[in-house]
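Exercise 7. Given the encoded structure of a 531-residue chain, write a plausible sequence.
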């Protein structure tokens, strides 16, 4: 029985027969009927971590008792000052910070459903998320106010209570709020978060995860592969809006009573300084980051003992370069927003560089052929997985494409060898993965087409040594427009203004026409083969 008053999310979940199979074979995955994931903080304190570091940043630290007190104050302000009812959707739009982390826990503690958005998203993108999730409340970093106000207007005047933090009324309300708050008595299968991902159409899909799913990612990948200790210090570059970053910097440390250290600036130099300052032991970033840091490894990285790579394929050369530079073999892994975190990986002597690994304990995986049947070892097909987590799109017909025969079909082409190791071959769709970011080609195309000079365009991922892939656009201009370097820069800047800046095409090739079939269908494979 749900503990949430607002049942919008539950009412818009896929039908039972459209869901994947869920597996709870491991004892740690058999959660009680009543469970609120924020109880991880209570458990850390009960296990003697009250005065131990929970969050570290350049200007200060919070112990676990201080983090819990802050989360409680957030929950109090949401429920008493902002009239939050359990089950309401709360958008959290902010960069990674100690306060962002406390707010995320506070939303769950209040029984809300967290909708965490990338701080780089533009107003049109934010408005789409607000509409799809029927967001009722928003806590937004003051530095992002102007863009969010535009999004609020674009959302069509939806009833939305917005508070900006980092100076102002919300901060004062927190100071006045009591440090205690009894977590709402949610069911373990009550929605805890909606994580948005872009599909190949560029239309975001809301992936709904329950309170038990938040705990499940800690009881699978973290417990069995990361193998953390309470004395560890976690650090990572992924935003909390990515479930990769949510696990790495928020959930995994709390689940074992460890600390998380937050870089105070973007970039890998700042990351290395953070590792040195806080003696970070456990690092999460994309292969792009490890390639960059491997070129300048120094004593700042001496405290590391566990390094996790995800977000894009990890080449064997990058894995070897990191081991040669640090003595640490990278833990690779593949996850999906639909699955909440990593489900295939390996650690230590089980790692085979170039291979993603084997199913994480709690999960099963196979490679499926076009007929939906498992393929024998060595053959290439679609990666399929099932476990304690799985795809639940919010009111989205694409559920039937992701879930088939009880399996979650990830959109990746893989082969499995005779020993059960999985080897990445390619994406099966038009998603571009650049420096760990998922970028939908049609979304970039739509942005380019809004420029007056562009008649047609097609976007693909082009190989890149540093980023794995970069966004490359092939652009057909209107007849009266001539290509030049000024226009190329203008188009790039236009995309940065229209959608999140990291999605802009780093390469633009002006062409007279796009390759098409006789029926007019774009032959994207020919563009991918273009040098």
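Solution.
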């Amino acid at each position: 029985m749900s503990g949430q008053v607002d049942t919008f999310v539950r009412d818009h979940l896929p039908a039972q027969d459209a869901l994947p199979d869920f597996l709870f074979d491991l004892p740690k995955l058999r959660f009680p009927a009543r469970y609120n994931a924020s109880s991880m903080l209570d458990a850390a304190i009960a296990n003697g971590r009250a005065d131990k570091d929970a969050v570290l940043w350049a200007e200060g630290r919070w112990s676990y008792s201080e983090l819990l007190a802050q989360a409680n104050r957030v929950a109090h302000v949401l429920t008493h000052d902002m009239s939050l009812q359990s089950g309401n959707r709360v958008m959290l739009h902010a960069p990674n910070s100690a306060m962002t982390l406390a707010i995320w826990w506070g939303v769950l503690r209040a029984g809300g459903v967290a909708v965490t958005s990338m701080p780089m998203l533009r107003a049109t993108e934010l408005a789409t998320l607000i509409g799809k999730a029927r967001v009722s409340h928003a806590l937004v970093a003051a530095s992002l106010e102007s863009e969010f106000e535009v999004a609020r207007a674009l959302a069509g005047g939806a009833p939305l209570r917005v508070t900006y933090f980092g100076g102002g009324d919300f901060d004062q309300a927190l100071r006045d709020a009591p440090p205690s708050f009894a977590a709402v008595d949610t069911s373990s299968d009550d929605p805890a978060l909606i994580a948005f991902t872009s599909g190949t159409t560029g239309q975001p899909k809301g992936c709904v995860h329950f309170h038990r799913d938040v705990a499940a990612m800690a009881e699978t990948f973290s417990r069995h592969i990361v193998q953390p200790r309470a004395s560890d210090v976690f650090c990572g570059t992924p935003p909390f809006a990515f479930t990769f970053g949510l696990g790495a910097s928020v959930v995994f440390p709390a689940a074992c009573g460890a600390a998380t250290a937050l870089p105070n600036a973007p970039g890998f130099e700042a990351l290395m300084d953070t590792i040195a300052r806080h003696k970070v032991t456990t690092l999460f970033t994309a292969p792009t980051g490890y390639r960059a840091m491997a070129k300048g490894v120094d004593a700042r990285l001496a405290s590391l003992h566990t390094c996790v790579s995800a977000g894009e394929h990890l080449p064997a050369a990058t894995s070897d370069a990191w081991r040669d530079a640090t003595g640490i073999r990278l833990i690779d892994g593949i996850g999906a927003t639909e699955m909440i975190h990593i489900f295939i990986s390996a650690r230590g002597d089980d790692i085979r560089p170039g291979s993603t690994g084997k199913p994480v304990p709690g999960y099963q995986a196979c490679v499926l052929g076009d007929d939906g049947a498992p393929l024998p070892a060595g053959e290439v097909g679609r990666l399929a997985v099932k476990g304690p987590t799985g795809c639940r799109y919010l009111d989205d017909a694409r559920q039937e494409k992701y879930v088939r025969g009880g399996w979650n079909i990830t959109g990746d082409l893989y082969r499995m060898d005779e020993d059960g190791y999985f080897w990445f071959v390619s994406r099966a769709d038009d998603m571009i993965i650049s420096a760990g970011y998922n970028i939908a080609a049609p979304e970039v195309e739509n942005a380019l087409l809004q420029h007056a000079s562009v008649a047609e365009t097609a976007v693909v991922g082009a190989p890149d040594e540093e980023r794995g892939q970069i966004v490359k656009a092939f652009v057909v201009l209107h007849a009266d427009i001539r290509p030049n370097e000024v226009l190329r820069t203008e188009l790039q800047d236009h995309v940065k203004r229209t959608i999140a800046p990291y999605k802009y095409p780093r390469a633009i090739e002006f062409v007279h026409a796009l390759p098409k079939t006789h029926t007019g269908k774009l032959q994207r494979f020919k563009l991918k083969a273009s040098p």
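Remark. The chain has a mean pLDDT of 93. Students should compare their own answers with the one above.
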